[in-house]
Amino acid sequence: MDLPLREPTFLILTALAAGPLHGYAIIAEVSTLSGARVGLRPGTLYGALDRLTDDGLVEPGAEEIVDGRRRRYYRLTDAGDATLRAETARLRANAEAATARLRVRDARAAGKLAGGFA
C-alpha cells in the first residue's frame, strides 16, 4: 500500500495493532483514537477492511456468534505492521520538521518583540 495513508486507514491499522478486534470494537477504537473526529459507519468500515484484506494488511480471524449475530475479528498482518510502522515514522519525521520550524519562528518572534531582527 502506498504512503501516505488516509487517516481512517491509519486509525484502523492503529486500532488493530493492539490485537484482534471485531467491527464494532474497531469503530469505537477509531473514535477514541481520533478524539471522536473520525466516525466510521459500518459500511465504510467493512469496505475498508475488504480493501485492507485484499492488500494483505489485515486478515479475518476468529468468528463467534453473539446474540444470534456473527462477529468476525480482524487482525493486523506482518505487512500491516510494517506499513503502520512506516507511516508512523513518516508522520513523526514530518511532525519533528514542523516543530523545528516553529521553534525558529518563535525565536524570531521573540527577537522582534525585544526590538531585534533575528
Structural account:
- By secondary structure, the protein is of the alpha+beta class.
- The chain is 60% helix and 16% strand.
- The protein is built from four helices and three strands.
- It has a three-stranded antiparallel sheet.
- Helix 1 (7-17) packs across helix 2.
Level of helix content?
55-70%
Number of strands: 3
- Spell the H/E element sequence: HEHHEEH
Low-confidence stretches: none
The strand line-up of the biggest sheet is: 1-3-2
Mean pLDDT over all positions: 93
Q: Report the radius of gyration as a whole number of Å.
A: 20 Å
Largest sheet, in brief, is:
3 strands, antiparallel
Bulk shape: elongated
Helical stretch tally: 4
Task: Report how far apart the termini are.
Answer: 44 Å
Which structural category fits the helices and strands?
alpha+beta
Counting copies of identical and different chains, the oligomeric state is: single chain
Strand content: 15-25%
